[in-house]
Amino acid sequence: MNQTISQTKPKSLLYLDGVSVSFDGFKALNSLSFVIEPGELRAIIGPNGAGKTTMMDIITGKTRPDEGQVFFKGDIDLTQRDEAEIANLGIGRKFQKPTVFESHTIWDNLELALNRSRGVFPTLFYRLTADDKTRIEEILSTVRLSARRDDLAANLSHGQKQWLEIGMLLAQEPELLLVDEPVAGMTDAETAETAVLLKEIARTRSVVVVEHDMGFIRELGVKVTCLAEGSVLAEGSIDFVSSDPKVIENYLGR
Amino acid sequence: MITSFLLKSLDRSIIAVVAILLGLAIAVPALNLLTAPDHPLHVPTYLVSLFGKYLTYALLALALDLVWGFCGILSLGHAAFFALGGYAMGMYLMRQIGARGSYGNPLLPDFMVFLNWKELPWFWQGFDMFWFAALMVVLVPGLLAFVFGWFAFRSRVNGVYLSIITQAMTYALLLAFFRNDMGFGGNNGLTDFKDILGFNIQAAGTRAALFAASALTLAICLVLTTAIVRSKYGKVLVAVRDAESRTRFLGYRVEHIKLFAFTVSAMMAGIAGALYVPQVGIINPGEFEPGNSIEVVIWTAVGGRGTLIGPIVGAILVNGGKSIFTAAFPEFWLFALGGLFVLVTLFLPKGVVGTASAYLARRKAHRRAADAERARDTLVAEPMAAE
């Protein structure tokens, strides 16, 4: 298994091999290995405590693995970098709980997320250019928030906050997007629209979606990885994974 | 819509405050110097210095608001930066005394002669020149804030832990400056100043000029901080305050963002201290007292955190109250101050200025809605009238 995985490393976008991490003796990840190809849309499922969020923490530099390798674009070692560096390399992350800047307007949220120089002095003397304006307007219409651009983010509904956060990720222009439970707490209509939105986004970049909602994953219609107890249990199409006896026992059956 | 409107009204209020400060910078010295002492509008010199002192406190509160109001860094050690700026100015003023001290030593300040020191310590060199002292007024607090912030923000010390270590910082400085062998006059501090830039520090004209300088500096710093918080950097500051890890995952180096604001704020606090010392005539280690820094937080909270104008109003209100109160009922002042903080926290969480501007904004929105309704009514009424 490890041998086949290391052969895929050079042309992969994200490459995890034998990643383990434990907190106070509890093994959150246990020799986790998987690969995301450039342009891939991947869904990750698994029961609570399977290590889905920990995996995201490791990829984005919030947590350091005890052992194992994490490489981005073949040869960039992510375990040696911190959150800001990894974000600037082109990995965006959406949190489980929608996290936007509530006391800023929708527009300012996107302006802050826009992929521009993020140092103290460039931001201090930043002027909104025509290009930036067009880009923000584009994103506003993609996430269907054009009409509310001057409202405070605090006044958005739960689902709209989720979209705003996805919009902020788009503004970041990442090559890889990690999305944690994007449809939690959404209505059915919103869920369907989010699936369309994510598929649209995945046309130009790779997306990893962690989700519990099996209906939503079926709607996405992509390759699924099922995690349990910190490692990969099964991988394949949704029908293949959901008929796997181990998956049924560990996750679906419960 | 509402935010852009609020921003616009805030713009107008900043201009108004700057105009008031500039007006005071001219009017108060003029009323002090140009009117006879029995004239009804005469401002006595002691009041000029007292108001000047309030303005330096206002500048200190404004500096705190930049880090606390906009970046959520509750510094409980800002009076330390103020005191360091004050000491730098005090050292310049000591060197100006020259041979006029009690011991008549042309080089050494009195306390050094008293301690039997034979030569000027290295860190007192250069303070005979005003430009050097002025540079140290911003550099010393700025450097301390930079080094302190570098370690604290890089290790991601946040919230109440950061507040506690800022208290420890000011307390450590308090103990250090109390020691005679530190070379800063120990317990007594630095006092008995004679001249500043060649002018007699006691003269009414010098006092008036110091007042004008305080008002002018406050106005400049207000415009500067406004520009900072209105820039994209200012938006990042607020983003850090509200959702620090989101900001980090967007790719901002949160520690650099915080460090810049903290350093700029400490420099402003240092300038405030440097303007304070010549007006009160003394600087001693008591200025590092942890309680002093907490008082600055109270001024800021009373006036309105995160409003820039609020802390200025708060500092002047609370200190004006303190001057009146301590004269009338000296033993109750601390209870009044504590009670004020509790009341403001419970009933005016946005402070005086924050509450007032929210009220005005609401009233304006109401009026606009009413106007719109009236306009609609006349539109409906007019075609009927035409028929």
Provide an overview of this structure.
The complex is a heterodimer of chains A (254) and B (387). In chain A, a hairpin with a 2-residue loop joins strand 1 and strand 2 (26-36). By secondary structure, chain A is an alpha/beta fold. In chain A, the strands form two sheets. Chain A has a six-stranded mixed sheet, sandwiched between helices. Chain A has helices at residues 2-7, 52-59, 83-89, 106-113, 120-124, 130-142, 158-171, 188-202, 214-220, 238-242, 245-252, and strands at residues 14-23, 26-36, 41-45, 67-72, 76-77, 91-94, 176-180, 206-210, 223-228, 231-236. The two termini of chain A are 29 Å apart. Chain B is an all-alpha fold. Chain B contains 14 helices and four strands. Chain B has helices at residues 2-33, 45-71, 78-97, 110-114, 130-154, 159-178, 204-230, 232-242, 244-249, 254-280, 290-303, 309-328, 333-347, 351-386, and strands at 190-191, 195-196, 199-200, 282-283. Chain B has a two-stranded antiparallel sheet. In chain B, a hairpin with a 2-residue loop joins strand 2 (195-196) and strand 3 (199-200). In chain B, helix 2 (45-71) runs parallel beside helix 7 (204-230).
Number of strands of chain B: 4
N-end to C-end Cα span of chain A = 29 Å
Mind summarizing the main beta sheet of chain B?
2 strands, antiparallel
Residue-averaged pLDDT of chain B, rounded?
91
Largest sheet of chain A: 6 strands, mixed
Strand order of the largest sheet of chain A: 6-7-8-3-9-10
- Name the helicity range of chain A: 25-40%
The SSE string of chain B, one letter per element, is HHHHHHEEEHHHHEHHHH
Q: Can you tell me the overall shape of chain A?
A: globular
- Low-pLDDT parts of chain B are 1-6
Order of helices and strands of chain A: HEEEHEEHEHHHHEHEHEEHH
CATH arch. level architecture of chain B: Orthogonal Bundle
- Output the number of helix runs of chain B: 14
What is the spatial order of strands in the main beta sheet of chain B?
A: 1-4
CATH fold label of chain B: ABC transporter involved in vitamin B12 uptake, BtuC
| Rg of chain B | 24 Å
- Strand content of chain A is 15-25%
Overall geometry of chain B comes to globular
The number of distinct helices of chain A, counting runs of at least 4 residues, comes to: 11
Structural class of chain A: alpha/beta
